[in-house]
Amino acid sequence: MNFVAYRGLFAKTEGRGLHKFLLGVFFATLAMGGVLLAFSLRFNFLNAEFRLAFSLMLALSFILFSFVLFSNLIIVAFRPVTKRVFSESRRKFLRFYLDVTILILAFSYFFKGMYNASHVPEVKRQNIVLKGLKSPLRIAMITDIHLGDFLGVPFAKALVERINLLNADAVVIVGDIADLPPSRLGEYIAPFAEFKSRYGTFYAPGNHEYYNGIEGTLKEIKKIGIQILGNESVSIGGINLAGVYDLIGYRYKFYEPDLEAALKNTDKNLPTVLLAHQPKFIKYMHKDVDLVLCGHTHGGQIFPFSLLVKLDQKYLAGLYQVNDKMQVYVSRGAGFWGPPVRVLAPSEISLLELKGE
Question: What is the residue-averaged pLDDT of the chain?
Fold first, then answer.
């Protein structure tokens, strides 16, 4: 990405020796930051400040690459026209100012993304019709909180305050609650014991819980009174609320998702809502439910990275009709992972207003 951006900027301007050298140093630094970040994810040798800095460098690399690639595709497409209309010196002049504009726009995009990620998410209200639901039900949903070195206890408290104002019938947390080992988790999630709702707070694991030790993580979550739906179900407010472990359990060979077990004790006369962290779990489902609640995608977090996410996860963000019976709602998540940058994929607290036909 950095090589493409380096080659694409100011490629045709005169006297480019010094600024090309400085650009080369700049992009080499960005590339080094990305490499160190990648190794730190495997060997965990960076402190929080360096992880933050290198994460931001990776985000900036992607944004610059995207802007340069898009602008150069436009230039190539219109090259026959510009050659007929403008002289060579005029084309070089216009190209220089186009490159300056690209840099300004890319850095503006980057800083706006940082601003977006630093705020407590707004509430997104979504009406959903469920066949067979006899009375309305309000579910507050959060996913992908990723508490840790960047989003701490104050952020958790702010989420609780905002959700408690919604007077929800139930609160559900659909995976990736934190990026912390169990030994540190308790302090960060303690505010979640203060969620207020009629039926309580329910949780299904995400993939990041496995990375940090899922057994210890589940113990800490149980300590604060959150009910874990790991291949289990409960009956609340006229629905079956079920949950499965995350798909990554297949890779780890433990805590694997088991839809059959999750639905075993459900009431066939009630609509069923399933908590499953990754939307692509739907591909593994051998039977339908009425509604699947997912996260994981972050809505792409940084456009146009969302286009790549959609290749992996068919459902990116919002409400989808899967078939005649089943719907899926995918939250963009409350926090962020990696760089604290969100562009065209705002974080959210979802308030799902379930109603019968």
Answer: 92
| CA dist., res. 81 & res. 86, Å (int) | 9
80 has pLDDT over 90: no
What is the distance between the alpha carbons of residues 1 and 63, in angstroms, rounded to a whole number? 9
CA-CA distances (angstroms) from residue 39 to 45, 176, 180? 8, 22, 18
pLDDT value of position 71? 87
What per-residue confidence (pLDDT) applies to 98?
A: 84
All residues at 6 or more sequence positions from 125 whose CB lies less than 8 Å from its CB, including other chains: 351, 353
How far is 225 from 222, CA to CA, in rounded Å? 5
Where do runs of H (alpha helix) occur along the chain?
2-8, 17-43, 48-85, 88-117, 153-164, 182-189, 207-211, 214-223, 249-252, 259-263, 305-312
Cβ distance 109 to 304 under 8 Å? no
Per-residue pLDDT band for 327 (boundaries 50, 70, 90) equals: very high
Q: Which of 153 and 85 is assigned the larger pLDDT? A: 153
Residues 348/334, Cβ–Cβ less than 8 Å:
yes
Structure tokens at 151: 């989003």
Q: Are strands 137-142 and 170-174 parallel, antiparallel or unpaired?
A: parallel
Distances from the Cα of 206 to the Cα of 2, 5, 47, 256, 276, angstroms: 32, 35, 24, 11, 8
Number of H helices, E strands in the chain: 11, 12
Per-residue pLDDT of 278-323, as tens digits, reads 999 999 999 999 999 999 999 999 999 999 999 899 999 999 999 9
- The predicted pLDDT at position 91 comes to 73
How far is residue 145's CA from residue 339's CA, in Å, rounded to a whole number? 14
Cβ atoms of residues 46 and 55 within 8 Å? no
> 340: which DSSP letter?
S
**Are the beta carbons of 245 and 205 closer than 8 angstroms?**
yes
Let me know: does 202 contact 171? Beta carbons within 8 Å: yes
The Cα 290–Cα 281 span in angstroms is 15
Q: What is the mean pLDDT of residues 204-219?
A: 96
* 18 or 136, higher pLDDT: 136
